[in-house]
Design a protein that fits this description.
By secondary structure, the chain is α+β, with helices and mostly antiparallel strands. It has three helices and eleven strands, in the order ββαααβββββββββ. The strands form three sheets. Strands 5, 6, 8, 9 and 10 form a five-stranded antiparallel beta sheet that branches. It has a four-stranded antiparallel beta sheet with strand order 4-3-11-7, with no helix packed on it. It has a two-stranded antiparallel sheet with strand order 1-2. The protein is rod-shaped.
């Protein structure tokens, strides 16, 4: 069988290369195009469509009606600079609830600073010693019952929660004026269980929910 194609188009779909032999030009060129050749072309086209459909089905988790409407494929490959959301990976709405578990996350790949709402904490002894806490946190004291905790991030707009370890202690935590990473903590107790509160060194826990 002699082949005299006037057009050859290569279609690479999911790792499969297909060669299409065209038809439909001048009669002299069509003279050597047989029914068998046309059948081969048809089968190749059908296989390409099936592979394309398969690829679209595999992409179902990230496809939306909006993206399908915006990108019909009629204009060829759209530059990434014009594709909204390109290069940003999977979005929250495209990941099913409970789809990502602890076992799926490699050690160290997700840190506190990667979270949309990170938290920072400090476990402080009465002597102003950091017994535990977020890496980079520090603590100092300016006198009895007066502490200043410094975190490795801006906590000026975070919700602060301070807990005294002694039941008779009152505690207050407020952002340090003009210092976005610092929190002032005061601890006071009632001598003998009654009377006025007096500034006293006490252990406490401090958490900043951001």
């Amino acid at each position: 069988m002699k082949l005299t194609p006037y057009l050859i188009a290569s279609a690479a779909v999911i790792g499969t290369a297909a060669v299409l032999v065209g038809s439909g030009t001048a009669a002299s060129e069509n003279a050597n195009t047989t029914a068998q050749q046309l059948l081969i072309n048809q089968r190749i086209s059908q296989a390409a469509v099936l592979r394309s459909n398969q690829s679209l089905n595999y992409l179902a988790p990230i496809r939306t009606t909006q993206t399908d409407a915006a990108n019909t494929g009629k204009n060829g490959v759209t530059p990434l600079s014009r594709v909204q959301g390109s290069g940003k990976g999977w979005t929250t709405s495209q990941i099913a609830d409970k789809a990502v578990t602890g076992a799926k996350i490699a050690d160290g790949t997700v840190t506190n600073t990667n979270l949309a709402h990170p938290s920072y904490y400090a476990q402080v002894s009465a002597a102003a010693v950091l017994a535990g806490g977020t890496t980079g946190a520090t603590v100092t004291t300016s006198g009895a019952g007066r502490y200043q905790v410094t975190f490795p991030a801006d906590v000026s707009k975070c919700t602060l929660s301070a807990t005294a370890l002694a039941a008779t202690t009152t505690i207050a935590a407020i952002p340090t004026a003009g210092q976005t990473q610092k929190v002032d903590v005061s601890t006071d107790t009632q001598p003998g269980g009654g009377g006025d509160f007096v500034a006293t060194n006490q252990a406490f826990h401090l958490i900043a929910y951001c």
